[in-house]
Amino acid sequence: MASHRRTALFVAAFAALAALGAVSASAATRQAPAGTAPTPVTVVVNAATNRHVGTGFAGFSHEKDRIGAGIFDAKDTNLVNLFRLLGPSVLRLGGNLVDMVNWNGKGAGGSAKEIAPADVTKLAGFLRATGWKALYGINLKTNTSANAAAEAQFTAKALGTSLLAFEIGNEPNFYRTEATYETSYNSYVKAIKAKVPGAVFDGPGPASKNSWLKPFATHEKNNSLAILSMHTYIDSNTAASISGMLASTAPGGKLAGQWSALASAKAAGGIAQWRMTEANSYFHGGAAGVSDVQAAALWSLDFMYGIASHDGAGVNFHGGTSTQFPLHYSPIVFSGLTPTGVQAVYYGELLWSLAGTGALHAAAVSGGSGVAAWGIANNVVLNNKSSSAITATVKLAAAAARASGYVLTAPSLTSKAITLAGSGVTASGGFHPAPQSLSVSGTTVVVTVPADSAVLVLTR
């Protein structure tokens, strides 16, 4: 599909609202001071295709015990709406807790200590209500292949087309070698496929272990491996900083090396796709004031572009709730099992999703520092991480008749008061954007981007 159905809805909203020329109050405060002109910048979008952005790119990862806890409930219309605003996409169920909770086929359900049939049935209803698909993790560390097969059999039937793939264990590099993990993987795959002949899998899902990727992809390419996967974070939350976070996506760094390793292993093994199935800023839940503020929204955009430009199919940002430690980086904020709002990374995912699907285009930026840009189809994202406002003259990959600007901004990099096109997202999934009408002539669009902000240029 050339673009998300959601994009069409927001374009329609723009038609009604563009005449207002609305700009959020926070965006206005981020413009250059009186008497100081924004820095002029030129952005040239390469007409050649550089990879592709598909449906389901920006997803979530949650701890698997949340299934038994009951967080995924079709009756929770607020959570359904928050998922649907980004969707359809992919929910990965795993995390540390996948290897601590087990399947009980005779269980009553409703306990975070185990997974029972009623819990999976409830999850299936939630996935149908949201239109999302699941990467469903199965305990490896404290399980048997027979019990895994029983769980997979029930899950495959309950989830149906909402099941994207199974994954075996979580970050097995902490308790297996690559070779011994392959042995376990093969044993589980064999047992599961005896019960679910059409089952497919993602893996190996190590934590920042590039060396596992090529051997696993090469050895398992004919053993139902549909998605080559990995997990990553910048560093521990004790080392968290805004400057370190924003710098982490630079070429030649740790994250870029992982994206390259995944792309290379995917190609070498002939695997259909690779995906970062668990990721966020800093592990052990991130850090307040870093992982939950405007800087993290901007970081998430660069992170997603890095994945897309290295032929990745998407990312599952970890979040939700956890019994282990607070998840400051969670895209959706919860009180207990109740969603109470969204924060930084969610806004990055929302802007990315509004850009739609289609060909990915690299872009060259000149005239300013701290500015990144790229195209998705004939839409453009500009990420201005500098402390000065910019006015960008954008050369599109193709001519456009009209253009609108969705500005992602906040009063400062450390602020949680984030808006997108003048609107926040409410706990019930309410979003009422008022995009700017932009000057467009053929392939040229002019847009002003506040300091420490991003903008989506949406064309028609």
CATH topology of the largest domain: TIM Barrel
The residue fraction in helices comes out at 25-40%
- Please provide the count of β strands: 26
Unreliable stretches (pLDDT < 50, length at least 5) are 1-29
Give the C-alpha Rg. Answer: 22 Å
Report on the biggest sheet. Answer: 12 strands, mixed
CATH architecture of the largest domain: Alpha-Beta Barrel
Write the layout of secondary structure elements.
Elements: H1 5-17, H2 25-29, E1 39-45, E2 52-53, E3 58-63, H3 65-69, H4 77-86, E4 90-94, E5 102-103, E6 114-115, H5 117-130, E7 133-138, H6 145-159, E8 163-168, H7 178-195, E9 201-207, H8 213-220, E10 225-232, E11 235-236, H9 242-247, H10 254-269, E12 273-279, E13 282-283, H11 294-309, E14 315-318, E15 332-335, E16 338-342, H12 344-354, E17 358-366, E18 371-376, E19 379-384, E20 390-395, E21 403-409, E22 419-420, E23 436-437, E24 439-441, E25 444-449, E26 453-459
Parallel strand pairs: 1-20, 3-4, 3-14, 4-7, 5-6, 7-8, 8-9, 9-10, 10-12, 11-13, 12-14
Antiparallel strand pairs: 1-17, 2-17, 15-16, 17-18, 18-19, 19-26, 20-25, 21-22, 21-23, 21-26, 24-25
Helix pairs in contact: 5-6, 6-7, 8-10, 11-12
Describe what this molecule looks like in 3D.
The chain has 460 residues and is of the alpha/beta class. The protein folds into two domains: 5-51 and 361-459, Golgi alpha-mannosidase II (Immunoglobulin-like); 55-354, TIM Barrel (Alpha-Beta Barrel), CATH 3.20.20.80. Helices cover 30% and strands 28% of the residues. It has helices at residues 5-17, 25-29, 65-69, 77-86, 117-130, 145-159, 178-195, 213-220, 242-247, 254-269, 294-309, 344-354; strands at 39-45, 52-53, 58-63, 90-94, 102-103, 114-115, 133-138, 163-168, 201-207, 225-232, 235-236, 273-279, 282-283, 315-318, 332-335, 338-342, 358-366, 371-376, 379-384, 390-395, 403-409, 419-420, 436-437, 439-441, 444-449, 453-459. The strands form five sheets. Strands 1, 2, 17, 18, 19, 20, 21, 22, 23, 24, 25 and 26 form a twelve-stranded mixed beta sheet that branches. The protein has an eight-stranded parallel beta barrel with strand order 3-4-7-8-9-10-12-14, surrounded by five helices. The protein has a two-stranded parallel sheet with strand order 5-6. A hairpin with a 2-residue loop joins strand 24 and strand 25 (444-449).
